[in-house]
């Protein structure tokens, strides 16, 4: 598949967490690095699209983690623009070992916005032609995360302040920061005991500089050794992001 972009990457010390493995936020950062480099190679880099006052925003990720690579490990980052309709685009990402071992698979849905009006616009046809994506009437949807309010227990909340350095070049909070806000309240004991195996995260609204964020979570009862956590991020009572995460007890 010539439309699959691949680049090698060596995991470095500042990309791992206390376990010595590539952190969840950095998994996303490397995935976006791959798509950014592919776009630049095709002449559709940020400089060009931002010159037209437009930019890509992610709406949802569904991430399956088979194994997180360790520090100093060399991996392949792969990505492909799969399909699109006038307003939404589906992109896949893979992290693989050099021997082809599947490490992480991510399905994602993106949209394009007017950078000033912060409103969704039609995706220019020339962009999708460049990526060789398949035009469809209805894109392949990702199921919504489980609603945190569907269980009877009350969610726990932790407050965070959005700093200047949390903002990226699209002028909103970098998507990877949401994972830190969601996972940090679970506490060190939980995060050391359990390994993330799947994440489904949906971005409802942009979070901007100076906002006061409340990160809510629930830990559901373990079933067959698997634990599910539900997450919701709010600003001034408005839901900004929702997620569900699947965990297994750490064996290493």
Report what the structure shows:
- There is one protein chain.
- By secondary structure, this protein is of the alpha+beta class.
- The chain folds into 2 domains: 142 residues, Hotdog Thioesterase (Thiol Ester Dehydrase, Chain A, Roll); 110 residues, Roll (Thiol Ester Dehydrase, Chain A), CATH 3.10.129.
- The chain has 5 helices and 12 strands.
- Strands 1, 2, 3, 4, 5, 6, 7, 8, 9, 10, 11 and 12 form a 12-stranded mixed beta sheet that branches.
- It is globular and about 50 Å long.
- Fraction of helical residues: 10-25%
What is the overall shape?
globular
At the fourth level of CATH, the homologous superfamily of the largest domain is Hotdog Thioesterase
**Major β-sheet annotation:** 12 strands, mixed
Listing every helix as H and every strand as E from the N terminus to the C terminus, the arrangement reads EHHEEEEEHEEHHEEEE
Report the sheet-strand fraction.
35-45%
CATH architecture of the largest domain: Roll
CATH topology of the largest domain: Thiol Ester Dehydrase, Chain A
Domain Acyl-ACP thioesterase-like C-terminal: 152-249
Protein name: Acyl-ACP thioesterase
Family: Belongs to the acyl-ACP thioesterase family.
Keywords: Fatty acid biosynthesis, Fatty acid metabolism, Hydrolase, Lipid biosynthesis, Lipid metabolism, Transit peptide
């Amino acid at each position: 598949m010539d439309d699959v972009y691949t680049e090698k990457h060596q995991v470095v010390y500042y990309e791992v967490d206390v376990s010595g493995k590539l952190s969840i936020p950095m998994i996303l950062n490397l995935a976006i690095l791959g798509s950014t480099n592919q776009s630049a190679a095709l002449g559709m880099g940020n400089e060009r699209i931002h010159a037209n006052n437009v930019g890509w925003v992610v709406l949802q990720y569904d991430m399956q983690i088979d194994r997180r690579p360790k520090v100093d490990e060399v991996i392949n980052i792969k990505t492909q623009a799969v399909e699109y309709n006038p307003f939404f685009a589906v992109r896949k990402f893979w992290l693989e070992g050099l021997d082809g071992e599947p490490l992480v698979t991510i399905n994602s849905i993106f949209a394009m916005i007017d950078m000033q009006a912060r409103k969704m616009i039609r995706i220019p046809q020339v962009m999708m032609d460049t990526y060789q994506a398949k035009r469809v009437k209805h894109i392949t949807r990702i199921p919504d995360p489980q609603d945190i309010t569907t269980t009877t227990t009350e969610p726990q909340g932790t407050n965070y302040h959005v700093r200047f350095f949390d903002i990226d070049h699209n002028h909103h909070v970098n998507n990877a920061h949401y994972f830190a806000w969601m996972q940090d309240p679970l506490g060190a004991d939980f995060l050391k005991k359990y390994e993330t195996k799947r994440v489904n995260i949906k971005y409802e609204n942009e979070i901007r500089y100076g906002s006061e964020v409340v990160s809510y979570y629930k830990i559901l009862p373990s079933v067959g050794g698997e634990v599910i956590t539900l997450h919701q991020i709010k600003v001034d009572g408005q839901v900004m992001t929702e997620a569900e995460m699947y965990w297994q007890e750490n064996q290493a």
